[in-house]
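Hey L., structure's done. Input below.
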Amino acid sequence: MTFRGHLIGGVLAGIGLTAAATRLGYLPAQDYQTWGWMFGTTVAGSLFPDLDTSSVPQRWFFRLVFAALLYLGWTEDYERATLVGVLAVLPLLDHHRGWTHWKVSPLLVPLVLGTVFEYWRARHAWFSGFSWENVRQLLGGRVIYLVACIVGWYTHLLLDGHFKLVTADRNHH
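Output:
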């Protein structure tokens, strides 16, 4: 699949997921900023697996990462800057269609990184002992972005043909 195909797939998945999350009450009605972040996260997830190859999209991605890191540094948001930096280098750790195209990666990578980031963000509350308030604080309403990343990434793999929706075996009875 081409970059354009993955972009279109990500846009459609982002629109569908954002609309479904709003309809089901997971996103506040008319909170356009949250809608935009969820949509953008889904689209980014759909493009992420192919950032492991030298291309025009990869160059634009790293230009955006550079601008984001400058902004986050300027605003002293070092936690998010660290997260952006770690995420940016992940596709470069292996060859094209390596671990970024494994069927389990879209689930494991965001869950592990999201859990580590949220623990890191709320770590001081955990030293006072376990409570459901600590769990709520750990999640902090950002689970929707985790879901958006996972849906976007699986959209990419689906468009690359890693999942068969209909079997083509006509000899099977």
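The radius of gyration is 18 Å. Residues 3-53+95-159 form one domain.

-- N.
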